[in-house]
Design a protein that fits this description.
With about 575 residues, this protein is mostly helical. About 80% of the residues lie in helices and about 0% in strands. The chain is built from 26 helices and no strands.
């Protein structure tokens, strides 16, 4: 056989193999593939209809059909309950060598693990997808998005920020910066979770501008409405309300529960109880148990503020009933998370060394040890946390004492310095009289008299300050608010209590001259509720007492104190915390 014939036979063989490996898929699969992104429901229908005929096709076609079916189900938010099929598909593509399909299989394997709450395996699988280094940047953006979600889910906010920034770089490489709106939004969410509202605000704006560039109004208004919570937390209530009102009118935002939720908070901050009640009722139409719980609590406080104690109790009872369900769900999620972590470590470390019986025995022992260790560790960290809290409280108290002592010592030092100067002037006066210098004698006498007068003024100011504060603490209005903590004769959160609040403000302005004026000069944007919190702090009422008087939760009072402190810091106030700020206005 001639060399030319041999070469021809080899060429035909190569072409035959190539055609076999890159064959055309059946029409049903091609049609499903083409409509997958925009119409996954139609794709799933085509794939399901073709399922009876797939057995006659080669194995590679069958595998791709199964992979596309999982993809369509995922796009339709059908929860995956088993990893058997996707694991079989991944194993096939790992052997088959089609890396592009392997990358897609890894991605959906991660999605399956995510549905099964197996966070460690999901993250590891997404990392495998990244390491393949296949130039499918569109799929890589989805991988980074999922990894960002997983990092956020585990509280690794800095890692989530990093991975979303990598995602934005990929969008730029694709020349699709306008598609990165959700990546910017997720970064904003992470900064919100970290309590860095300035950064969150900045990235929400980036996300909104990006969505506008994409000409996607649904995405734009969805992100914009979410950013309203950042406006609210930063005290820009009117801006938040305007954004939410505009978003409500957008028909492309199908689920508006988050808008109703924020509007309820906004109107509650403004003490517009009817509007707050209306929007909280709207949230109850959702199936989200956590949102319902929060809103029953909110409705309870609204009714309490209105004076409807019976209805308030009704809503709070509903919240307690829901709380039991939430606690069960939360415990289930925690157990699933611990189970997932254990199974991951067990699969990776133990399967290579132990037989099935040994592994089961070790799992039982390890489970007992984990429970014991978790209990001991939790107790230890709780002890440390409580100890740290006590230390911080003592530090703040000590700082206040130190500041007061320093102010007193400065006054006493001024008096002492003036006394020394008076003694020096007396010596100079004696000398001037000896020299019969009448003009110098008169000048020294004037200086001496001025220093003596200044000392008297300092002493009088200190005494007057003590008397003003003592008089305030013996005043009737001071006693009204102190006694109200025990008797609750007057509902201080109700509008009828306005005269008592006015009397308290007047008494404080006398005891601490122009207290409210100086307060609003330092922080012009204070709301009525925030001003009341400051007045109560000056009345020596603890945060828990403030919560009772204003019919708020302790957490709500903590949030208000934090918000006031942040506002003051932005205006250039040099204070270590809220209490230091209030103490300084004496």
């Amino acid at each position: 056989m001639s060399p030319r014939v041999i070469h021809l036979i080899l060429l035909c063989s190569i072409l035959t193999i190539g055609c076999t490996q890159h064959r055309d898929y059946p029409e049903a699969i091609q049609r499903a593939e083409n409509c997958m992104d925009e119409h996954p429901d139609s794709a799933l229908h085509l794939l399901t209809a073709y399922a009876d005929s797939i057995a006659a096709q080669p194995e590679e076609v069958q595998m791709y059909h199964r992979l596309l079916t999982i993809q369509a189900q995922d796009k339709l938010y059908i929860t995956h309950t088993s990893d058997s099929l996707i694991n079989y598909i991944v194993k096939y593509y790992e052997s088959y060598g089609d890396k592009e399909k392997l990358m897609l299989a890894y991605y959906y394997q991660g999605r399956v693990y995510l549905d099964m709450n197996d966070v460690p395996r999901a993250l590891k699988t997404f990392q495998k997808t990244e390491r393949l280094q296949i130039p499918d940047l569109d799929l890589l953006t989805k991988v980074y998005s999922q990894m960002g979600y997983l990092f956020a889910y585990q509280g690794l906010y800095d890692e989530a920020i990093k991975i979303n920034k990598k995602n934005i770089i990929i969008y730029k490489e694709l020349q699709k910066e306008h598609k990165a709106a959700y990546a910017w939004r997720d970064i904003a969410r992470m900064y919100d979770m970290k309590g860095k509202m300035d950064s969150a605000f900045y990235y929400y704006k980036k996300a909104c501008h990006t969505a506008l560039a994409d000409k996607d109004s649904a995405k734009y208004y969805g992100i914009l409405s979410e950013s309203a919570e950042a406006y609210r937390k930063m005290g820009m209530i009117d801006s938040a309300r305007q954004i939410l009102s505009m978003s409500l009118k957008q028909p492309k935002i199908r689920n508006k529960a988050h808008i109703y939720m924020i509007l309820g908070d906004v109107y509650e901050d403004l003490q517009c109880w009817d509007s707050a009640y209306y929007y909280r009722q709207k949230v109850l139409e959702t199936n989200n148990i956590h949102k319902k719980f929060d809103n029953y609590i909110g409705l309870g406080w609204i009714e309490k503020a209105r004076g409807n104690e019976k209805q308030a109790l009704h809503y709070l009872e509903k919240a307690l009933w829901l709380n039991d369900s939430i606690q069960k769900i939360t415990r289930t999620e925690e157990i699933a998370k611990i189970n997932s972590l254990y199974n991951y470590q067990h699969t990776e470390a133990e399967n290579n060394r132990l037989q099935l019986i040994q592994a089961r025995q070790k799992a039982q022992l390890l489970g007992l040890l984990l429970v014991s260790l978790a209990g001991a560790t939790g107790g230890f960290f709780y002890f440390l946390r409580q100890k740290e809290k006590r230390r911080k409280v003592l530090e703040v108290a000590e700082k206040f004492k130190k500041d007061a002592k320093e102010r007193y010592e400065r006054s006493m030092k001024a008096i002492e310095d003036n006394e020394n100067k008076i003694k020096e002037l007396e010596a100079q006066l004696t000398l001037a009289k000896t020299e019969c210098d009448q003009l110098k004698t008169e000048q020294l006498q004037v200086q001496q008299k001025r220093l003596q007068t200044r000392n008297e003024e300092i002493a009088l100011q200190q005494e007057e300050k003590k008397l003003r504060i003592a008089a305030f603490r013996r005043s009737a209005i001071y006693k009204v608010f102190q006694q109200n903590l025990q008797t609750q004769d007057i509902n201080m959160a109700h509008e009828k209590s306005a005269p008592e609040w006015e009397k308290l403000k007047t008494a404080i302005n006398i005891a601490y001259p122009d207290f409210t004026e100086r307060l609003h000069n330092l922080c012009p944007s204070l709301s009525d509720k925030e001003t009341k919190v400051c007045l109560l702090a000056k009345t020596d009422i603890t945060p828990s007492g403030v919560a009772e008087i204003l019919s708020l939760t302790r957490q709500a009072v903590t949030n208000i104190r934090t918000r006031i402190y942040q506002k003051v810091q932005k205006t250039g106030g040099d204070f270590s915390n809220f209490d230091h700020f209030i103490e300084s206005l004496d």
